[in-house]
Amino acid sequence: MLRKAARFIAPLAIGALLVTAGCNAGSEDTSGDNGEIGELSAMTMGTGSVGGTYYPLGGAIAQMWNNNIEGLTVSTIATGASVENLTQMAAGDIQLAMSVNGTATQAVNGQGDFEETGALEGVTFLGNIYPEVMQIVATDDSGIETVADLDGKRVAIGPDGSATQGLTMAILEAAGVEPAETFPDGFGDAASKLRDGQVDAAFGILAVPDSSISEVAQNADVHLVTIDDEIRQTLAADDPTLGDMEIPAGSYEGIEEGATTVTSWAALYAPAGLDEDQVYDLVKFMYENTDEVDNAVASQISIETAIDGLVDVEYHPGAQKYYEEQGLL
After folding, report:
1. Is 251 exposed, middle or buried (0-12, 13-18, 19+ CB in 10 A)?
2. Domain spanning 132-263: which superfamily?
3. 4-130+265-325 in CATH: which number?
4. What does the pLDDT profile of the chain (329 residues) look like in tens digits?
5. Which of 18, 188, 209, 299 is most buried by its number of CB atoms within 10 A?
6. Is 132-263 in the same CATH topology as 4-130+265-325?
7. Residues 181-218, buried b or exposed e (16+ Cβ, 10 A)?
């Protein structure tokens, strides 16, 4: 189990799939305790903030499903991401949740952001989507070269209820750092503040490369900040779903040097009571029709990494059936 310090660790729709009052279609068939739901004609998937990776990618995946799965329409909503998505799913408000895998592990164990509310029942794993990479971007004139340099600075820490904010706070705590001011911004807003000089640094759990970072790098002098070895070791000791990753130099035009950081997985979750055949189709098409997902990150969706980093969360029976057919289980 994850220790208490891990509580901090927790990241789309293209036009027609954006938030509407009717996005919870199908929720009238869903019980709040994740009991048997049955076959649905419509599902809602919680994504993330508009400026992040989840929002556009989730919409593109939903559109692909809608084009291929007969009798099912999947719509998406913008949210605070991982924590909010899992909480809404457990309450029966949505049927699919994008989340960082570490946050889902906390959810089923009643840890971290779920320590006060208790463990969420019926949360099941469908599959990994892409590697989630913590990226710290600082302005060149801020004097920030290490995490320790964030002390006394203005820092965008990620939206409330997001994996970004949770992991940001864990990093700051491990480093003994206290910013002068923090902003609970999604990375889209944070990038604008970096460009306009309103913040000194911003954290984001994002794909590599990320369009928001690319945009700010072309309009402001910024660089990536490495997470020191000691901090990474502290984080990994508290959350076994985390690993080290090197962001290569040249990943972003305008940023010459790379950085060493931590990574986890953006994954898809569903209530245990969701129809087995429908979940099987969702998983199958997500991995076998990636060429129809109109988003650059879709190239990182791979059956080869579909079940990596899974800790304590059970497979949905529909997902398990697919992975057994593929020889992964």
Report:
1. buried
2. Periplasmic binding protein-like II (3.40.190.10)
3. 3.40.190.10
4. 333 333 333 333 333 333 333 334 344 444 444 478 989 999 999 999 887 889 999 999 999 999 999 999 999 999 999 999 999 999 999 999 999 999 999 999 999 889 999 999 999 999 999 999 999 999 999 999 999 999 999 999 999 888 899 999 999 999 999 999 999 999 999 999 999 999 999 999 988 999 899 999 999 999 999 999 999 999 999 888 898 999 999 999 999 999 999 999 999 999 999 999 999 999 999 999 999 999 999 999 999 999 999 999 999 999 999 999 999 99
5. 209
6. yes
7. ebbbbbbbbbbbbbbeeebbbbbbbbbbbbbbbbbbbe
**Type of residue found at 108:** V
Return the domain boundaries, the chain.
4-130+265-325, 132-263
pTM for this model (two decimals): 0.77
